[in-house]
Design a protein that fits this description.
Number of strands: 6
Structural class: mainly alpha
Largest sheet: 2 strands, antiparallel
Distance between the termini: 40 Å
Order of helices and strands: HHHHHEEHHHHHHEEEE
Radius of gyration: 21 Å
Strand content: 5-15%
Strand order of the largest sheet: 1-2
Protein backbone atom coordinates (compact mmCIF):
# COMPACT_ATOMS: atom_id res chain seq x y z
CA UNK A 1 0.00 0.00 0.00
CA UNK A 2 2.85 2.43 0.75
CA UNK A 3 4.13 2.12 -2.82
CA UNK A 4 0.80 3.44 -4.11
CA UNK A 5 -0.22 5.78 -1.28
CA UNK A 6 2.02 7.03 1.52
CA UNK A 7 -0.75 7.18 4.10
CA UNK A 8 -1.06 3.41 4.75
CA UNK A 9 2.59 3.39 5.74
CA UNK A 10 1.99 5.44 8.88
CA UNK A 11 0.09 2.49 10.31
CA UNK A 12 3.47 0.80 10.69
CA UNK A 13 4.69 3.75 12.75
CA UNK A 14 2.18 2.99 15.48
CA UNK A 15 3.64 -0.52 15.85
CA UNK A 16 7.05 0.75 16.94
CA UNK A 17 6.05 0.56 20.61
CA UNK A 18 4.89 -3.04 20.16
CA UNK A 19 8.18 -3.94 18.51
CA UNK A 20 10.16 -2.42 21.38
CA UNK A 21 8.07 -4.35 23.91
CA UNK A 22 9.08 -7.68 22.36
CA UNK A 23 12.04 -9.73 23.48
CA UNK A 24 15.43 -8.88 22.05
CA UNK A 25 15.31 -11.80 19.64
CA UNK A 26 11.97 -10.68 18.19
CA UNK A 27 12.49 -6.94 18.49
CA UNK A 28 12.50 -5.13 15.17
CA UNK A 29 11.64 -8.12 12.99
CA UNK A 30 8.41 -6.60 11.74
CA UNK A 31 9.98 -3.24 10.95
CA UNK A 32 12.96 -4.94 9.31
CA UNK A 33 10.62 -6.95 7.09
CA UNK A 34 8.74 -3.76 6.22
CA UNK A 35 11.95 -1.93 5.37
CA UNK A 36 13.19 -4.77 3.17
CA UNK A 37 9.88 -4.98 1.32
CA UNK A 38 9.86 -1.24 0.73
CA UNK A 39 13.45 -1.24 -0.49
CA UNK A 40 12.74 -3.97 -3.04
CA UNK A 41 9.51 -2.29 -4.12
CA UNK A 42 11.13 1.11 -4.54
CA UNK A 43 13.97 -0.33 -6.60
CA UNK A 44 11.47 -2.01 -8.92
CA UNK A 45 9.42 1.19 -9.05
CA UNK A 46 12.49 3.23 -10.00
CA UNK A 47 13.59 0.65 -12.59
CA UNK A 48 10.19 0.57 -14.27
CA UNK A 49 9.30 4.25 -13.95
CA UNK A 50 12.64 5.95 -14.34
CA UNK A 51 12.27 9.73 -14.43
CA UNK A 52 8.50 9.48 -14.23
CA UNK A 53 8.82 7.94 -10.78
CA UNK A 54 10.70 11.02 -9.60
CA UNK A 55 8.22 13.31 -11.33
CA UNK A 56 5.32 11.65 -9.51
CA UNK A 57 6.95 12.50 -6.18
CA UNK A 58 7.71 16.04 -7.30
CA UNK A 59 4.08 16.43 -8.34
CA UNK A 60 2.97 16.19 -4.72
CA UNK A 61 5.78 18.25 -3.20
CA UNK A 62 4.99 21.14 -5.55
CA UNK A 63 1.33 21.33 -4.57
CA UNK A 64 0.02 24.29 -2.64
CA UNK A 65 -2.71 24.49 0.00
CA UNK A 66 -5.78 22.61 -1.19
CA UNK A 67 -9.07 24.38 -0.50
CA UNK A 68 -10.43 21.64 1.78
CA UNK A 69 -7.46 21.46 4.13
CA UNK A 70 -7.20 22.66 7.71
CA UNK A 71 -4.81 25.42 6.68
CA UNK A 72 -7.18 26.61 3.96
CA UNK A 73 -10.08 27.08 6.34
CA UNK A 74 -7.99 29.09 8.79
CA UNK A 75 -6.27 31.22 6.13
CA UNK A 76 -9.52 31.98 4.31
CA UNK A 77 -11.26 32.94 7.55
CA UNK A 78 -8.41 35.23 8.61
CA UNK A 79 -8.08 36.69 5.14
CA UNK A 80 -11.79 37.41 4.78
CA UNK A 81 -12.00 38.76 8.30
CA UNK A 82 -9.11 41.19 7.81
CA UNK A 83 -10.07 42.23 4.30
CA UNK A 84 -6.96 40.71 2.71
CA UNK A 85 -6.96 39.54 -0.88
CA UNK A 86 -7.91 35.86 -1.06
CA UNK A 87 -8.64 33.68 -4.05
CA UNK A 88 -8.11 30.25 -5.54
CA UNK A 89 -6.77 28.63 -8.68
CA UNK A 90 -7.14 25.20 -10.25
CA UNK A 91 -4.06 23.03 -10.64
CA UNK A 92 -2.93 19.52 -9.74
CA UNK A 93 -6.53 18.42 -10.39
CA UNK A 94 -7.94 20.42 -7.46
CA UNK A 95 -8.62 23.92 -6.16
CA UNK A 96 -5.77 25.60 -4.27
CA UNK A 97 -6.10 28.83 -2.34
CA UNK A 98 -4.24 32.09 -2.78
CA UNK A 99 -4.05 33.92 0.52
CA UNK A 100 -1.51 35.60 2.80
CA UNK A 101 0.48 32.86 4.50
CA UNK A 102 -0.47 30.11 2.03
CA UNK A 103 3.08 29.63 0.78
CA UNK A 104 4.43 29.46 4.34
CA UNK A 105 1.73 26.99 5.35
CA UNK A 106 2.57 24.76 2.39
CA UNK A 107 6.24 24.75 3.41
CA UNK A 108 5.38 23.89 7.03
CA UNK A 109 2.88 21.15 6.20
CA UNK A 110 5.40 18.29 6.01
CA UNK A 111 7.21 19.23 9.27
CA UNK A 112 3.85 19.57 11.02
CA UNK A 113 2.79 16.16 9.74
CA UNK A 114 6.01 14.70 11.14
CA UNK A 115 5.40 16.41 14.50
CA UNK A 116 1.83 15.10 14.64
CA UNK A 117 3.06 11.59 13.90
CA UNK A 118 5.68 11.84 16.65
CA UNK A 119 2.91 12.77 19.08
CA UNK A 120 1.06 9.60 18.10
CA UNK A 121 4.24 7.57 18.61
CA UNK A 122 4.66 9.04 22.08
CA UNK A 123 1.11 8.09 23.04
CA UNK A 124 1.55 4.64 21.53
CA UNK A 125 4.77 4.17 23.52
CA UNK A 126 2.83 5.00 26.68
CA UNK A 127 0.56 2.03 25.96
CA UNK A 128 3.56 -0.27 25.32
CA UNK A 129 2.02 -1.46 22.07
CA UNK A 130 -1.46 -2.14 23.46
CA UNK A 131 -4.55 -0.94 21.56
CA UNK A 132 -2.61 -0.72 18.33
CA UNK A 133 -5.72 -0.24 16.20
CA UNK A 134 -6.53 2.95 18.07
CA UNK A 135 -3.12 4.48 17.50
CA UNK A 136 -2.95 3.25 13.92
CA UNK A 137 -6.12 5.24 13.26
CA UNK A 138 -4.67 8.22 15.09
CA UNK A 139 -1.53 8.02 12.93
CA UNK A 140 -3.54 8.07 9.70
CA UNK A 141 -5.70 10.90 11.01
CA UNK A 142 -2.59 12.86 12.01
CA UNK A 143 -1.41 12.99 8.43
CA UNK A 144 -4.90 13.91 7.23
CA UNK A 145 -5.45 16.91 9.50
CA UNK A 146 -1.87 18.19 9.17
CA UNK A 147 -1.60 17.68 5.41
CA UNK A 148 -1.87 20.43 2.82
CA UNK A 149 -4.41 18.35 0.88
CA UNK A 150 -7.57 17.00 2.52
CA UNK A 151 -9.84 15.50 -0.11
CA UNK A 152 -13.27 14.30 1.07
CA UNK A 153 -12.58 10.66 0.18
CA UNK A 154 -9.68 10.60 2.64
CA UNK A 155 -12.16 10.03 5.47
CA UNK A 156 -12.66 6.49 4.17
CA UNK A 157 -9.15 5.61 5.32
CA UNK A 158 -9.95 6.01 9.01
CA UNK A 159 -13.29 4.17 8.94
CA UNK A 160 -11.88 0.68 9.71
CA UNK A 161 -9.91 1.87 12.74
CA UNK A 162 -12.79 3.76 14.33
CA UNK A 163 -15.33 1.04 13.53
CA UNK A 164 -13.55 -1.68 15.53
CA UNK A 165 -12.53 0.51 18.47
CA UNK A 166 -14.45 -0.56 21.55
CA UNK A 167 -15.33 0.93 24.90
CA UNK A 168 -16.56 4.44 25.59
CA UNK A 169 -13.79 5.90 23.44
CA UNK A 170 -14.92 3.86 20.46
CA UNK A 171 -18.56 4.79 20.95
CA UNK A 172 -17.77 8.51 21.08
CA UNK A 173 -15.34 8.22 18.18
CA UNK A 174 -17.95 6.59 15.94
CA UNK A 175 -20.51 9.31 16.60
CA UNK A 176 -17.88 11.97 16.03
CA UNK A 177 -16.74 10.37 12.77
CA UNK A 178 -20.35 10.15 11.62
CA UNK A 179 -20.73 13.87 12.28
CA UNK A 180 -17.52 14.52 10.32
CA UNK A 181 -18.90 12.52 7.39
CA UNK A 182 -22.22 14.40 7.48
CA UNK A 183 -20.41 17.75 7.52
CA UNK A 184 -18.25 16.58 4.62
CA UNK A 185 -21.35 15.52 2.68
CA UNK A 186 -22.84 18.97 3.23
CA UNK A 187 -19.65 20.57 1.99
CA UNK A 188 -19.09 18.25 -0.98
CA UNK A 189 -20.87 18.85 -3.27
CA UNK A 190 -23.81 20.87 -1.91
CA UNK A 191 -21.89 23.78 -0.39
CA UNK A 192 -18.74 23.52 -2.48
CA UNK A 193 -19.88 26.30 -4.81
CA UNK A 194 -20.15 28.59 -1.79
CA UNK A 195 -16.66 27.62 -0.66
CA UNK A 196 -15.21 28.23 -4.12
CA UNK A 197 -17.03 31.57 -4.19
CA UNK A 198 -15.31 32.30 -0.84
CA UNK A 199 -18.59 32.97 0.95
CA UNK A 200 -18.70 32.88 4.71
CA UNK A 201 -21.19 29.99 4.79
CA UNK A 202 -18.78 27.71 2.93
CA UNK A 203 -15.75 28.84 4.95
CA UNK A 204 -17.54 28.33 8.27
CA UNK A 205 -18.75 24.86 7.27
CA UNK A 206 -15.22 23.92 6.20
CA UNK A 207 -13.75 25.05 9.52
CA UNK A 208 -16.48 23.22 11.42
CA UNK A 209 -15.72 19.97 9.60
CA UNK A 210 -11.99 20.39 10.18
CA UNK A 211 -12.55 21.16 13.87
CA UNK A 212 -14.53 17.93 14.19
CA UNK A 213 -11.65 16.00 12.63
CA UNK A 214 -9.24 17.59 15.09
CA UNK A 215 -11.56 16.62 17.92
CA UNK A 216 -11.65 13.03 16.67
CA UNK A 217 -7.86 12.92 16.54
CA UNK A 218 -7.64 14.29 20.08
CA UNK A 219 -10.15 11.69 21.27
CA UNK A 220 -8.14 8.83 19.80
CA UNK A 221 -4.97 10.19 21.38
CA UNK A 222 -6.19 11.30 24.79
CA UNK A 223 -9.48 9.47 25.38
CA UNK A 224 -9.88 8.79 29.09
CA UNK A 225 -10.32 5.06 28.58
CA UNK A 226 -7.18 3.13 29.51
CA UNK A 227 -5.24 2.41 26.31
CA UNK A 228 -3.89 -0.84 27.75
CA UNK A 229 -7.29 -2.42 28.44
CA UNK A 230 -9.95 -2.02 25.79
CA UNK A 231 -12.69 -4.00 24.13
CA UNK A 232 -13.09 -4.02 20.39
CA UNK A 233 -16.51 -3.33 18.93
CA UNK A 234 -16.82 -7.08 18.25
CA UNK A 235 -16.31 -7.86 21.94
CA UNK A 236 -12.70 -9.03 21.79
CA UNK A 237 -10.16 -7.93 24.36
CA UNK A 238 -7.01 -6.02 23.55
CA UNK A 239 -4.51 -6.02 26.39
CA UNK A 240 -0.86 -5.05 26.56
CA UNK A 241 1.62 -5.18 29.43
CA UNK A 242 0.60 -4.48 33.01
CA UNK A 243 -0.82 -0.97 32.77
CA UNK A 244 -2.80 1.20 35.06
CA UNK A 245 -4.67 4.36 34.23
CA UNK A 246 -4.18 7.36 36.47
CA UNK A 247 -7.35 9.19 35.38
CA UNK A 248 -5.41 12.09 33.87
CA UNK A 249 -5.06 10.80 30.32
CA UNK A 250 -1.77 9.02 31.08
CA UNK A 251 -0.82 5.41 31.59
CA UNK A 252 2.01 3.99 33.62
CA UNK A 253 3.55 0.69 34.58
CA UNK A 254 1.55 -1.27 37.12
CA UNK A 255 3.76 -3.56 39.20
CA UNK A 256 0.78 -5.45 40.60
CA UNK A 257 0.43 -8.99 39.18
CA UNK A 258 -2.62 -10.14 37.28
CA UNK A 259 -5.19 -12.14 39.25
CA UNK A 260 -4.96 -15.90 39.03
CA UNK A 261 -8.15 -16.07 36.99
CA UNK A 262 -6.67 -13.92 34.20
CA UNK A 263 -6.77 -10.22 33.42
CA UNK A 264 -9.63 -8.26 34.87
CA UNK A 265 -11.60 -5.76 32.84
CA UNK A 266 -12.72 -3.82 35.87
CA UNK A 267 -11.51 -0.26 36.05
CA UNK A 268 -8.69 0.14 38.56
Amino acid sequence: GMLVKVFPGVVAASTVAAEVAHSRRQRGRGLAALGLSLAVGLMLWAALGGRQAVQSLRYHTERGIEIGSLYSGLLLAVGKGTGAAVGHHYNHASEHIQAPGAITAAALAFPLQAAALLLVLWRSRCSRGADGVRYAGAAVLALLVAGKVLSPQYLIWILPFVTVQGGSTGARARWLLLTCCLATALLYPWAFDKLVALRWSGIILLNLRNALLLGLWGLLLFGREAPGIARTAAGGIVRGSHLRYNGQGNCANDPSPEPAGGPSLAAP
